[in-house]
Write a structure and sequence with these properties.
CATH architecture of the domain at 340-584: Orthogonal Bundle
Number of helices: 9
Strand order of the largest sheet: 5-4-8-7-6
Number of strands: 12
CATH class of the domain at 340-584: Mainly Alpha
Shape: flat
Largest sheet: 5 strands, antiparallel
Distance between the termini: 49 Å
Helix content: over 70%
Structural class: alpha+beta
CATH superfamily of the domain at 340-584: Methyl-accepting chemotaxis protein
Length: 603
């Protein structure tokens, strides 16, 4: 027992234990997978049945929709044609085909025994048509129809089934559309109440189509086969088999549906189709599904067994060849160990260098960032100065233009003052002429007074005139003297104005020259400021680019440091794996881990 335990401690013994565990696990998984496939195939069989039934129902829906449209269209034609003849009304009862019924009229046109309307509808739409009249007993009797009985005779005098759905709907004043058994044959039908002028039900309008499309449905399911023993059946509202997928006998099918002796061996699924009152039935032998599921389950187990056998052969081959490979593996492990030690030492040095580079880059990035902020602030101030200089240059130009305009106005005023002085001089000359004229007039007036005095009384009137002329002459002389004094003062003031305007004009000229010089200097300052602003902005942009490059270098240094640390970690993992490889090959722990610890201590 002790020897056996000692052998189990070796690598080969461990492999055998693992192999045994693998056998148990694979066997359990095979059983589980087989059962899972068995259940899945049973469910698959059920899904196949369900999908087949749904496909049949889809086909029936299409047929039902087509016939419903035909029936409703034909009903509209029947009612419209009938009402165009006249309003429905009933009169005295008569005996008709063994029944006592009221006479039914459309306007003045009798319908009882008259087949003109129903045959016209049959010719136009292809539908069977009938007009019912309500008897005193509450029955609805066919009094005009193109529905044929056995023997090719019209089904007049027959009544609507009082237990059918159509009868119930009509009594409750509702139309009915659906599948109905008429005289033992299924029809797609429509029934509408017939009202008289007092809104009383006196009869029924009917149209219908025989279920010829059931043959198409029978061809659809004919030959459907998913299992060795299966059958799909369509049964009408009277539990008659109208279609089936194979040649299974009707009596056998009905026996299974009624729970006959073999019913337990079959899986029976029934699905109702409510619009027609039909049933879609699937009959599948239970053993067919079980056989398929069991066969696939066995196939899976056999396949897994074959795979496991191949795997076992590989394990035995591996055990026989392991000893020869041990020496090569040990050599590779030692070489891998030496390479890992070198990588570990190099990665440690690289990690330290990368860390120092990252710290230096971070400090340099901080300094550049501070310089960049200062430079951006200086650039902003220079831009502001340049803007202010531009504004000062604009104001200086405006001042120079204003000075030029003032100088020009002063020249115009100086010219005007000279003109005023000239005009004053000319007015003085004119006033002197007026003064001379007044003096001569005064002398003439004195002479006239003397001559009037000599004339005596005859010259009295002339003396008065002469006196008045003398007074006017004196007044004119006095006015001319006053005007002359005013003009003299104006001349004096004009002369002073001319002198002052000349001085102001000279001052404006000097101001204009100085303003031009100032404007030139301000323009030069503006150009220099703008150039300085552009230069500072370029310098600031260069600082920003330097900052970005330094930050990228710092990030790269940090990434290099992280990569070096990761490389160091991976090297340690490789050394550990080499140690484990030696344990696997030799069955004992080597001195590699001790050497690894020494390498870490040296670093």
């Amino acid at each position: 027992m002790k020897n056996i335990l000692d052998k189990l401690k070796g690598s080969i013994a461990k492999i055998f234990v693992m192999y045994f565990i693998a056998v148990v696990i694979i066997f359990g998984l095979s059983l589980k997978q087989g059962n899972s496939i068995y259940n899945e195939n049973k469910m698959k069989g059920e899904r196949v049945v369900q999908e087949t039934q749904e496909a049949i129902i889809d086909q029936m829906d299409i047929i039902n929709e087509l016939y419903s449209r035909q029936v409703k269209s034909s009903m509209n034609v029947l009612i419209r044609t009938g009402l165009s003849i006249g309003v429905p009304n009933t009169r005295d009862e008569i005996s008709f085909s063994g029944k006592t019924v009221p006479q039914l009229f459309l306007g003045e046109h009798s319908i009882v025994g008259n087949y003109e309307l129903v045959d016209k509808i049959a010719g136009e739409t292809g539908a069977t048509a009938t007009v019912f009249v309500k008897s005193r007993s509450g029955e609805f009797v066919r009094v005009s129809t193109n529905v044929k009985q056995d023997g090719d005779s019209r089904a007049i005098g027959t009544v609507l089934d009082p237990n059918g759905q159509a009868f119930e709907y009509i009594v409750n004043r509702k139309p009915f559309y659906g599948m109905v058994d008429i005289l033992g044959k299924p029809y797609f039908t429509g029934y509408e109440p017939m009202y008289n002028a007092n809104n009383e039900i006196i009869g029924i309008w009917y149209v219908g189509f025989p279920t010829e499309q059931i043959r198409v449905l029978a061809k659809t399911i004919e030959g459907k086969k998913q299992f060795e023993n299966d059958c799909y059946v369509i049964m009408d509202m009277n539990e008659r088999i109208v279609a089936k997928s194979n040649d299974m006998k009707d009596e056998d099918i009905l026996s299974l549906l009624k729970g006959g002796k073999d019913a337990k061996e079959w899986d029976i699924t029934v699905k109702d189709y409510e619009p027609w009152g039909y049933k879609i039935i699937s009959l599948i032998k239970t053993s067919d599904i079980d056989n398929i599921a069991t066969r696939e389950k066995l196939e899976v187990i056999v396949n897994i067994g074959i795979i496991f056998l191949i795997f076992s052969l590989f394990i035995f081959f591996f055990l026989f060849t392991t000893k020869k490979m041990n020496k090569k593996i040990l050599t590779l492990a030692n070489n891998l160990y030496e390479s890992s030690c070198l990588i570990l030492s190099t990665s440690s040095q690289l990690a330290m260098t990368s860390q120092q580079l990252a710290e230096g880059s971070a400090e340099q990035a901080a300094a550049i960032e501070q310089t960049s902020a200062t430079m951006q602030e200086t650039s902003t101030m220079i831009k502001q100065n340049a803007e202010n200089t531009k504004k000062a240059s604009a104001l200086s130009d405006k001042t120079a233009r204003s000075s030029d305009e003032g100088y020009q106005h002063m020249l115009d005023m100086n010219n005007s003052m000279n003109e005023i002085k000239k005009s004053s001089d000319e007015m003085a000359k004119i006033i002197k002429v007026i003064d001379d004229i007044a003096f001569q007039t005064n002398i003439l007036a004195l002479n006239a007074a003397v001559e009037a005095a000599r004339a005596g009384s005859a010259g009295a009137g002339f003396a008065v005139v002469a006196e008045e002329v003398r007074n006017l002459a004196q007044r004119s002389a006095k006015a001319a003297k006053d005007t002359a004094e005013i003009i003299e003062r104006n001349i004096t003031l004009s002369t002073k104005g001319v002198e002052i305007s000349t001085l102001v004009s000279n001052s404006f000229k000097e101001i204009n020259e100085n303003a031009d010089k100032v404007s030139g200097l301000v323009a030069e300052i503006s150009v220099a400021s703008e150039e300085q602003a552009n230069g500072s902005e370029q310098f600031a942009q260069s600082i920003i680019q330097m900052e970005q490059v330094i930050q990228q270098n710092a990030a790269a240094a940090q990434e290099n440091s992280a990569s070096a640390h990761e490389l160091e970690t991976q090297s340690e993992k490789i050394l550990h794996m080499v140690s484990e490889l030696n344990i696997l090959v030799k069955g004992k722990r080597s001195n590699i881990e001790g050497k690894n610890k020494n390498i870490k201590i040296d670093m």
